[in-house]
Amino acid sequence: MIRHRNESRLGWLQRLRCDVEVVLAALVTAVGGVITTILLKVRKENTNDHASVMEILRSVGGKVERIDSKLDSHIDWHLKEATGGEVSKRN
């Protein structure tokens, strides 16, 4: 009888341990899922922001090239005036 009672307690503890392990595994999975979802959302927002920034940089780059061309022409005009119509080669 005593042996049966001890075995019964041992079985109860083993079942409890198994239940705790299942709950812990489910908790880790749930927390991991939430963290993964948050990271994917942040990554998507970052990709969208990056695309917006690249579009703006392309626009600014085009404007800078146009201004550079205009400045080159203007500087050439000044050099022609200063040298009597000849423009020296520049880098």
What is this structure, in a nutshell?
With 91 residues, the protein is mainly alpha-helical.
Account of the 3D structure:
The chain is 90% helix and 0% strand. With 91 residues, the protein is mainly alpha-helical.
Question: Any chance you could write out the topology, listing elements then pairs?
Answer:
Layout: H1 2-83
Looking at this protein, list some descriptive labels.
1 helix
Distance from first to last alpha carbon:
103 Å
DSSP summary: helix tally:
1
Silhouette: rod-shaped
Q: Tell me the Rg in angstroms.
A: 37 Å
What's the total count of β strands? Answer: 0
**In which range does the helix fraction lie?**
over 70%
SSE topology string: H
On the 0 to 100 scale, the average pLDDT is 80
Please summarize the sheet with the most strands: none
> What are the segments in which pLDDT stays under 50 over at least 5 consecutive residues?
none
